[in-house]
């Protein structure tokens, strides 16, 4: 086995170990309600009205650290988790808590890295990014932030693809989940269901 393969296997092992430590280390998963809004399958640009460009880049990097594309399951891209987060932030029935937690986390992460490294988080090497996330989850705001992101990741694994996530049912296939029938129609989807039934 060549040196590059050994290094790659070691990195994959370390990443899985890191994720396991994050999970066991006290991240309280707050699944909450399914807050995705109805939208077409067209993927959104990294520039949007919810987050700044820097916040978007940092968010995507943290998501990829929490749920790495290491061949052991669907990726954040496959699940369309970024889309799910954006539309959840624009949920007309939300109390704004999720958005405030994510904005706080992104701002504090960026401020901390700029102060210590004189760079944005997304400009750091993957190794340094992982180290910074590991430090972050030991702080109250960092634990809230990562817990919220993990909730969105798990939702994007489990939600029906009618919500423009879980593309091709990759999350269900990975979990070997058989969905119930009938599947939701456009009128059954959140938030249309609430509007149609005047709840």
How would you sum up this structure, described in words?
Helix 5 (97-117) crosses helix 7. The protein has one domain (50-197). The chain has helices at 3-24, 53-66, 76-79, 81-89, 97-117, 126-136, 140-158, 170-175, 192-197. It has nine helices and no strands. The protein has 199 residues and is mainly alpha-helical. The chain is globular and about 55 Å long. The chain is 56% helix and 0% strand.
Give short descriptive properties of this protein.
single chain, Gluconate_2DH_su3, mainly alpha, 199 residues, Gluconate 2-dehydrogenase subunit 3 family protein
Radius of gyration: 18 Å
* Number of helical regions: 9
The span between the termini is 62 Å
Q: Structural class from helices and strands?
A: mainly alpha
Write down the domain tally.
1
Number of strands: 0
Main sheet makeup: none
Helix content, binned percent? 55-70%
Poorly predicted parts? 18-46
Fraction of residues in β-strands: under 5%
> What spatial form do the alpha-carbon principal axes imply?
globular
N to C succession of SSEs: HHHHHHHHH
- The mean pLDDT is 79
